[in-house]
Amino acid sequence: MSYKVRLEVFEGPLDLLLHLINRLEIDIYDIPMAELTEQYIEHLHAMRVLQLDELSEYLVLAATLIEIKSKMLLPIHEDEAFGEEDDFELEDDPRDELVARLIEYRKYKEAAESLKDSADDRADFFTKPPEDIAQYGEVVSVGQEESLNVYDLIGAFQKMMDRNRLRAPLTASITKTEQSVGEKMDDIMEKLVKSGGSCDFYALLESRETGELVITFMSLLELMLRGDIIVSQNDNFESLTVSYLKEGESVVRE
C-alpha cells in the first residue's frame, strides 16, 4: 500500500520562506534565524519525497540560512583601540540582504495577486463590437404620456421575469413552441384591437412558460421597432401601457 502526501505548492524558495514567516507570525525585520532555518529544513525533507528535481534552488537558500545563522552565533569582538565614546561603524546585520530579498519578493507577489484578481473580475464581463444603436434610442411619444424606448421595455420584461422566478418553484420544463414570432405579432395586434387600442404590458405576458414569454416579448419588440405599437407610462412606477398606432396616425419622435 502506498501513501501520498499532499503539500502546499510553492513558487520557489523565497515563497516557502515567506509562507513560514507568515505562519509563524515572525517579524520580517527581526527574523529568529534558528527557528526559521529549522522549519525550512523540515519542509525540505518533506518536499524531497515529491520534488527531487526541483530541490536545487531550495538547497541554495538552505545553505544561505545556515550561513546567516552561523554568523549570528559568532561573538562580536569590539576593537580595544576604540573607547566607549569613540564613534565607529558596527558590522552589518547578516540578515539584511535576506530581509531585502524577502521584502522585494513580497511586493512582486502582492502585485501578481492583485493582477490575478483583476483578471478574474474582468472574466465576469462580456464585450461585443460597437455598433450604431441610434435607431433604438429614439423615443416615441403620443399625447401627454411619457413614451418609452426599447431599453425601458427590456427592463420591464426583466423585472417581470424576476418576479416569476420568486413565485415559481425552481424547476424548468421544455415544451415545443408551435407559434412563430409573426403569428404572435398578429395575436398581439388582435388583442389590442379588441381591448380598444391599448392593453396593459403585463397582461400580454400572462404565460408562465419561459418559451412563450420570450416569443411574446420578441414580438412586442418587433412591433415597436416597426412603429406599429408604442409603449407608454403615465408616471414613474405605474404600469406600462401598450398601444397600437391607428392607420394614418402620425408618430412624433423626440
From TrEMBL:
<comment type="similarity">
    <text>Belongs to the ScpA family.</text>
</comment>
<comment type="subunit">
    <text>Component of a cohesin-like complex composed of ScpA, ScpB and the Smc homodimer, in which ScpA and ScpB bind to the head domain of Smc. The presence of the three proteins is required for the association of the complex with DNA.</text>
</comment>
<dbReference type="GO" id="GO:0005737">
    <property type="term" value="C:cytoplasm"/>
</dbReference>
<dbReference type="GO" id="GO:0006260">
    <property type="term" value="P:DNA replication"/>
</dbReference>
<dbReference type="InterPro" id="IPR003768">
    <property type="entry name" value="ScpA"/>
</dbReference>
<keyword id="KW-0159">Chromosome partition</keyword>
<dbReference type="Pfam" id="PF02616">
    <property type="entry name" value="SMC_ScpA"/>
</dbReference>
<dbReference type="GO" id="GO:0007059">
    <property type="term" value="P:chromosome segregation"/>
</dbReference>
<dbReference type="InterPro" id="IPR023093">
    <property type="entry name" value="ScpA-like_C"/>
</dbReference>
<dbReference type="GO" id="GO:0051301">
    <property type="term" value="P:cell division"/>
</dbReference>
<comment type="function">
    <text>Participates in chromosomal partition during cell division. May act via the formation of a condensin-like complex containing Smc and ScpB that pull DNA away from mid-cell into both cell halves.</text>
</comment>
<keyword id="KW-0131">Cell cycle</keyword>
<keyword id="KW-0963">Cytoplasm</keyword>
<protein>
    <recommendedName>
        <fullName>Segregation and condensation protein A</fullName>
    </recommendedName>
</protein>
<keyword id="KW-0132">Cell division</keyword>
